[in-house]
Structure prediction request, 156 residues.
Amino acid sequence: MMTRDDIYIAASSMLLRWQGMCIGMRHFTCDNAQTPGLARHWAVDLLRAHGVSGELLETAELLVSEVVTNSHLYADPSNDPDRLITVGVGVNREMIHIEVIDPGSLVNVPAMRPAEDEDLGGRGLALVHQLSREWGTDHVQGIGRAFWFRLNLAGS
Prediction:
């Protein structure tokens, strides 16, 4: 079992691969029903402080909510003694990069699936796919899963 410090170091390393774009990183707990809202508000406040506004800010808000909600619902917190979800936000002249790292799950792997009209869920990844520049997932054994997406800044 990894220690809390091991998980923090691993999460920091995963975020650094994005070429220094990270302007903020915050940890939330997996098992708190308020985590998606807390993460969404934190990310929006951070992006707003860095000049992001309008429709782009609303899109980022929606996608952060979708991705963190998936982490809250499907991550396996037994992989992490502190039950953490880590959200990282990066901005450069071309794009916004948002990454959510959770304890992962070998059973619940992120995948788009068709949703029927009467389904209450199942549309989150389709929204990410439709609204983002690009997105992806990475799984690191013993650490968890990183789900990331990028949004174009105006004119990019």
About this structure: The mean pLDDT is 80. Residues 59 and 137 are 19 Å apart (CA to CA). Strands lie at 22-29, 84-91, 95-102, 134-140, 144-152. The longest strand covers residues 144-152.
